[in-house]
Amino acid sequence: MQRTKITELLNTTELNRKVCAKGWVRTRRGNKHVAFIALNDGSTIHNIQIVVDIAKFGEEFLKPITTGAAICVNGLLVESQGQGQTTEIQAEEIEIYGTADPATYPLQKKGHSLEFLREIAYLRPRTNTFGAILRIRHHLAYAIHTYFDKQGFFYFHTPLITASDAEGAGSMFQVTTLDMANPPKTEEGKIDYSQDFFGRSTNLTVSGQLEGELGAMALGGIYTFGPTFRAENSNTPRHLAEFWMIEPEVAFFDINDNMNLAEDFLKFVISYALEKCKDDIEFLNNMYDNELTERLNFVLNNQFVRLTYTEGVDILEKSGKKFEFPVYWGADLQSEHERYLVEEHFKCPVILTDYPKEIKSFYMKQNEDGKTVRGMDVLFPKIGEIIGGSEREADYQKLLNRVNELQMSLDSLWWYMDTRKFGTAPHAGFGLGFERLVLFITGMTNIRDVIPFPRTPKNAEF
Ligand code: ATP
Ligand code: MN
User: Fold this and answer.
1) Which helix (H) or strand (E) holds 265?
2) Which of 7, 266, 390, 407 is the most exposed place for a label (fewest CB within 10 A)?
């Protein structure tokens, strides 16, 4: 018999027909005469109840149907007698695909801590919490593609292996096929990368932006959506070593267009999630964060406050608040500062612009004052920075001056510089950390809990 997904079985009005459901047992309870199996197949947060007449199957047969076991049930779909569910299945045939020994199955009991679940990340998608998070993650990815497609942006695939260091950050993972124990050496005794796979030293990308700009300069508007790697040893609840980033890049956009795009885009994906992931968001709201739905609606219904970094620092300095990291003009704002502005001062998402050039990347458009650049960070409640972007420096000479000031090497950047020689134009873009968005929309507080297999320092087992 053809299997029907549980989400459909729970939402159908066609009752009293034979159906087939397959899934994993969440719980089995009951009495001498009847057993109730809560079955989940991942298609929804809700379980379907299987009603089993014990006399019909025998107690011995039902014994191995414990939490975690995979089964196939054929039976009659009927209106549920019990509360809190619409339909249930009266079992006629049950096949056990696989058992899960209660003595060793780690998810035998309910209510494990998120910390414990991180240690068994290979099983945690089977919990209600991670089922909800992962379904939301999927819908958000889909929403992002939908948004940009509707706006006429093209999905542009930038390389994961690169010879350039986009941010000049130096915190990159090296990619090599050289024998690490015995690498070939040059006459000066350095590792001879000309003998490496690509004939040069290469790394995993920290951002697709530089290549994304090449796309924007041809297709007008593009976005990337792919994995990004940062080897910074920052063990925080907001950083992963491998995360997914969305980077739109748009020709003929200035920083205001860029801010409008960021705000419109974020509001679109939030409203999409509220509509498509109702049950899952409701579940997380009830289980973890009572203000989640309210917070999402608040962001949706309010204009983001826009102000300059200088104005922001002024507010922070006058706040009288004791911060762990000192705040002064020129300081790179920490998450505590960002969250003060958003959560305590404005009580609203904030877009900060015009940062000191020293704390921002070389490619940002330089302002007339010689001190600041046209960067913009979008700051969200509970998260801090969710988006970082800028109008780009389109002037060849100004960009070159900055590259020289920073003593950056043109060896791996000459092709980027060329865009400012051949048909340069104003353009802008930003990067959204996908997991920070998923954090915000699920109300989770640790970024390790919104990606199936988190990569963090000393953690890459599964
Ligand atoms: P932060 O200051 O929070 O470390 P950043 O300024 O280094 O971030 P950008 O280089 O501007 O980050 O990257 C763009 C976006 O990517 C950020 O706004 C954030 O949403 C996300 N992001 C950056 N680093 C990480 C990371 N290690 N893990 C997850 N997301 C990240
Ligand atoms: Mn940033």
Assistant:
1) helix 255-276
2) 407
